[in-house]
Amino acid sequence: MTDTDPVAELDGSLDARDQARFDAEGLVGPPRTYWGDAWLILKGRWLFWVSLGIIVTFVSMAIVPQLFVWPSPGPDDPSGLFCFLSDARQPPSSSHWYGTDVQGCDYYAQVTHGARVSLIVALFATLITVIVGILLGGLAGYYGGGVDSLVSRLADGFFALPYLVGAIVVLSALTTQEGRQIWQVTVAIGFLGWPAVVRLYRSTVLQVKNLEYVQAARALGASDARIIFRHILPNAVAPTLVYTTIGMGAVISVEATLSFLGIGLPINSISWGIMISEAGTRIEQSPHLLFFPGLYLIVASLGFVLMGEQLREAFDPRFR
Amino acid sequence: MLRYFIRRVFQLIPVFFITTFLIFLVIRIIPGDPIQAQFGERRIPDNLRAAYIERYHFDEPLWKQYVLYMRDVLRFDLGDSIANQRPINEIFRESLPRTATLASMSVFFIGVFGIPLGIISARRKDGPVDNGFLIASLVMLATPAFVLGLLAQLFFGVRWGIFPVAGVEEGLMSYVLPALVIAVSSTAVTARLMRTTLLDTFREDYLRTARAKGLSERRVFTVHALRNALIPVVTVLAIDLGALLGGTIVTESVFNIPGIGFRITRAIVQRDTTMITGISIFLVMAYLVINLIVDMVYAWLDPRIRYD
């Protein structure tokens, strides 16, 4: 494009003048999308930035804990694991910011490394919940009839089971002599969460199923799968995002609770729940063993719950 | 009303059987021998094994075990604990009153703290107090009961000696701290619900009518707004009671209160499968019955529901 292009020049001059007036009056602006609107709301909220900061910190802690703790093998610590049995259960000091645990290991390093397992369980358990929920909810809403009754009654049955009791039943079934694996805990938590997602998707599908554009797609000969995935489910993307974020916060807490009760992660895994559980027996002498993993657990969970609340308010038209 | 009641009961029956069958199925398909689990590595004498099998019907096909078990459950007999060799009903008679005390005390705290907090938030909508409560309630929601329980135990029990540290020796006083711990997260939920419903009610036409009649602002608020806004909140409180029976599990094990929740955590350690099944099925029944009662009260308060 050259400088002498008259059309471009005209467009430009019109834009500059009129756009400023339109913006000032709030009448016409650049085309605004659903996601663009949500972003406009989000970026003006300090709680959004706080929760984003928390999430980014914990995610990087989980992926590259070396950013936060670096092992320094030296003459006095050849393993580089910061563990000296002679330093067991020291209170916080300048050399050990969070003190040391029963094994004499630096507690700051332990607590930092605990982020990984919490976030892995939270992410995959929530993914399982959402995938199973989308499939069953989509089927129930789209086909209705017998499939719907079957799925809905099954969901009701799961709802009647208090969450923790359900987890106890499933996980005590998985407990063998060798103990449990992380994936078993993840699957169990994910498996219990789906009924809520099923209700969400079922109602979305029911709302959208008979709208004109879905009928048009059907008239054009689109397959059921294409109609469900291309035309119906995109309507539920924003609620899913909100649900997933809040769900991850909740799963972090649930996983720690299960580990505390002795039906969660294996005892030798580095997890906040296990650390707190072990701290519980020495709470009087070494309260720092409870404080630091407890604090990380609460802040991580809070980060996701806060983010979910912000997303909900940004995406839900009733809050706009 | 009676027709509505009958319809709701008939809706509950399949849910009850589906849930109990799921519990039964999951517990019984555990790989490994439930009898051997009670003996560790030791060899079990043949006659003892035969006695176990006869008592718990382990030799029958799964569906028949379920039918036999449900026949007993419907006669209010939850069977015997395989680890303690005692009827589960007998264990319940000792532990249920403790859990019931704990759960009702926490519902009381939830109501006493949650409702006023919600009212204050709604009346000062978007002010600093409201925003402060919002953040506080999210923190309360994000704090797991066992972390809160251990912290409360450390400060209020060990350090400052205000409440008993653990156990049930000091009567009702022993239940106060655990009940507060259980109440915290539900208080946050209740306060937020109270705030939302009250704000919705403020927009209703009947409130404008009440003002137009010349009623005092105080009367408009207490008689017209608050009373209507309380209906859903009280419903949620009552449903909470059912969920709390499950929520006591964590707190009872932190504070060593030998109630139902404490028993189920013990049963996990002892691999007491019949006990786990019995307690879970009992909690499901309690949850369903409480829900039914809540539905009935709700239908009685709001006639639109029973004619739906």
Describe this structure in words.
The complex is a heterodimer of chains A (320) and B (308). Chain A is mainly alpha-helical. Chain A has helices at residues 6-25, 34-43, 46-63, 107-143, 145-159, 163-174, 182-208, 212-219, 224-232, 237-261, 272-279, 288-315. The model of chain A is unreliable at 6-10 (pLDDT under 50). By secondary structure, chain B is mainly alpha-helical. Chain B folds into 2 domains: 2-73, no CATH class; 96-307, MetI-like fold. Chain B has 13 helices and no strands. Classes of the chains: A mainly alpha (320), B mainly alpha (308). The interface between A and B is large, with 42 and 50 residues.
Could you write a compact summary of the structure shown?
The complex is a heterodimer of chains A (320) and B (308). By secondary structure, chain A is an all-alpha fold.
Keyword list:
heterodimer; A: mainly alpha; 12 helices; B: 308 residues; mainly alpha; MetI-like fold; 2 domains; 13 helices; flat
Task: Specify the oligomeric state.
Answer: heterodimer
| Number of individual domains of chain B | 2
Give the overall average pLDDT of chain B: 80
Secondary-structure element series of chain A:
HHHHHHHHHHHH
Unreliable stretches of chain B? none
State the CATH topology of the largest domain in chain B. Answer: MetI-like fold
Topology, number of strands of chain B: 0
Estimate what percentage of residues of chain B fall within beta strands. Answer: under 5%
Shape of chain A: globular
Q: Please tell me how large the radius of gyration of chain B is.
A: 24 Å
Assign an overall shape of chain B.
flat
Helix content of chain A: 55-70%
Q: What is the first-to-last residue Cα distance of chain B?
A: 12 Å
How many H/I helical runs of chain B? 13
Q: What is the topology?
A:
The complex is a heterodimer of chains A (320) and B (308).
Chain A: H1 6-25, H2 34-43, H3 46-63, H4 107-143, H5 145-159, H6 163-174, H7 182-208, H8 212-219, H9 224-232, H10 237-261, H11 272-279, H12 288-315
Helix pairs in contact in A: 2-12, 3-4, 3-12, 4-5, 4-7, 4-10, 4-12, 5-7, 6-7, 7-10, 8-9, 10-11, 10-12, 11-12
Chain B: H1 2-28, H2 34-37, H3 46-56, H4 62-74, H5 88-123, H6 128-142, H7 145-159, H8 173-202, H9 205-212, H10 217-254, H11 260-270, H12 273-301, H13 303-306
Helix pairs in contact in B: 1-12, 5-6, 5-8, 5-10, 6-8, 7-8, 8-10, 9-10, 10-11, 10-12, 11-12
